[in-house]
Design brief:
By secondary structure, the chain is an alpha+beta fold. The chain folds into two domains: 71 residues; 67 residues, no CATH class. Helices cover 54% and strands 16% of the residues. The protein contains four helices and five strands; from the N terminus they run ααββαββαβ. It has a three-stranded antiparallel beta sheet with strand order 4-3-5. A two-stranded antiparallel sheet has the order 1-2. Strand 3 and strand 4 form a beta hairpin. Helix 2 runs antiparallel to helix 4. The N and C termini lie far apart (117 Å). It comes from Methyloprofundus sedimenti. InterPro entries: DUF2058. This is Nucleoprotein/polynucleotide-associated enzyme.
Length: 180
């Protein structure tokens, strides 16, 4: 077996036993400090790793939430377009012009007389689909309004057929050719 350098120096008389013990104690203290500092360093490293992991998870959650919101918006737009496509009413290109506003500009669509009355009575609504204007029933327009009200351009209140009892002008009929 090999004898350590310290033992060889002691045997040859170059160092004293007190100095050897003191050197041994210092070496032990240094190794102990290194072990303690390693645990502190590892604790700091673990804390930093946990902190960065938590930040990454929060960021990922936020990104997933944004993606989900975008997907929901796309789904709503698809539902609205499907409702409009399935329920659009025909327009009469040679009929009566019905004027309405879209983004502070006056637009017009041509409809027949019955469709004009239905729009005025609130049975039909005008919606904007891509760059076109479509007529849809009021019930469908309400469903579209629940999803996104920006698509609805004209949705009049439904007029009751019965005349109010306290109306002083109930005996007078409104002319059919009166256009506002």
């Amino acid at each position: 077996m090999a004898i350590s350098l310290q033992d060889q120096l002691l045997n040859s008389g170059l160092i004293k036993k007190d100095k050897a013990n003191q050197a041994k104690k210092e070496k032990y203290k240094q190794s102990k400090q290194q072990r303690n500092s390693k645990t502190e360093q590892t604790e700091e490293a673990t804390l930093l790793a946990q902190k960065s992991l938590a930040e990454k998870q929060a960021k990922d959650r936020e990104l997933n939430q944004q993606r989900k919101l975008e997907a929901d918006k796309k789904a709503i737009v698809a539902q609205i377009k499907q409702l409009i496509k399935l329920n659009s009413q025909p327009q009469d290109s040679e009929g009566i012009a019905y004027n309405f506003s879209d983004n502070n500009t006056v637009k017009k669509i041509y409809v027949d007389d019955a469709t004009l009355k239905n729009i005025s009575n609130g049975k039909l609504a005008i919606v904007k689909y891509d760059a076109r204007y479509e007529l849809v029933p009021a019930q469908v327009a309400e469903k579209i309004k629940q999803r996104d009200a920006r698509y609805i351009l004209v949705l009049n209140d439904k007029i009751k057929d019965d005349v109010a009892t306290d109306d002083p002008y109930a005996d007078y009929q409104i002319p059919d050719d009166l256009m506002w």
